[in-house]
Design brief:
The chain is of the alpha+beta class and about 120 residues long. It has helices at about 10-25, 35-50, 95-115, and strands spanning about 50-55, 60-70, 75, 85, 90-95. It is rod-shaped.
Amino acid sequence: MANRKLIRPTLSDLREQEQSKYARNQRKRLPPEQTSAEEYYYLKQMANKTPMVVRLTDGEEIHGVIEWYDKKCIKINRETEPNLLIPKAVIKYIYKANEVKDLEENEISIFASDARK
C-alpha cells in the first residue's frame, strides 16, 4: 500500500472560516428599493396608450393616458383638458378605464338576473 498523506486544515484556517460565516450572517442584503413590476406596468400602459383612471387621495378622478412616469410622479395626457403632472404621493390608486365598464356591465347583468327571479 502506498503511503497516503492526510490533509487537515490547520486550526487557524478553521477559525477564519467560522469568522467569515459569522460576518456573512451579520450582513443581510437589503431588499431592492423598487421592483420592476411598477416599471413594467407603466411601460405596458404607455406603449398601448391605454385609457387610465387615476384616483387621488382627495377622491378626485382623472381620466387620461399615461405619457411619462418618474420615481415621484406621472404625466397624464387628457384629450379635452390640460395635461397633468401628478405626484405619486397624492395618488390613491390607478386602474384601466375599461375595467369600470366591464364591472358595470357585470353588475347590470347580475341585477337583471336577480330582478327576473
